[in-house]
């Protein structure tokens, strides 16, 4: 009996070279792009965002990886340039899903106003919900308001209370900017994104990468099950040390949160008020009113 010839999807990798020896991605019978007959999801990572999906989908040709490295470097430089003059920040996290009449919207608005009066710039993800509330609170008392957005498949419009707004392609670039220009994080109730920022920062503190960086959780009834898990299961099983419990401050008091952050900024970081850095015309640095959104 005659056997049908093997399909290209059944061909061994060495017969389908692609630059550095990896088989070229090609459509399968269902129209999805495949590598050597394997769906890209087999890498364990797939994204509707073309750039991030391609970045996370395993090894690429060296030239492609080099060009992406340049793009990532350019995004870092763009962030450094745009945020160099924003002043000392406190970054506020929280859900984008709550409207103006929600209790956590009101809490974020009042907390941001209090921190703005201390002279801090309020930085958020620039979107709606808690982020909008924090930027709004800063704007209402004459403080400065900054948004660092991450590009997502579902486009997020910037809220109307921003003095400076910048989009990032890569999550890790955005995270570096949020820590680099902040003296503290304030986390109000939120979802996976908020938890990600809280625990990544807690890990940096725990491992000594940053020191005495205030992380304040506001909305204690929301955070109580998480704090019980940390103080109970994690501590009892030896996954964290007793001193790690001091990394997070959970409070509903805006005054307590503001005092904790101010103390850390002034006594631990040596924060002092000083003359703002001068802008360089040679580098094309403009006043806030001339910055592109």
Describe this structure in words.
The protein has 293 residues and is α/β, with parallel strands linked by helices. Helices cover 38% and strands 14% of the residues. β8, α7 (220-236) and β9 (248-251) form a beta-alpha-beta unit. The longest helix has 22 residues, at 62-83. The protein starts with 24 loop residues before the first strand and ends in a 25-residue tail after the last helix.
Top keywords for this entry?
8 helices; alpha/beta; Rossmann fold; disordered C terminus; seven-stranded parallel β-sheet; two-stranded antiparallel sheet; 293 residues
Quick synopsis:
The chain has a domain at 87-270: Rossmann fold, CATH 3.40.50.
Helices and strands, with pairings:
Blueprint: E1 25-27, E2 33-35, H1 50-56, H2 62-83, E3 89-93, H3 103-117, E4 121-124, H4 130-140, E5 145-150, E6 164-168, H5 171-180, E7 182-187, H6 192-206, E8 215-218, H7 220-236, E9 248-251, H8 254-268
Parallel strand pairs: 3-4, 3-7, 4-5, 5-6, 7-8, 8-9
Antiparallel strand pairs: 1-2
Helix pairs in contact: 3-4, 3-8
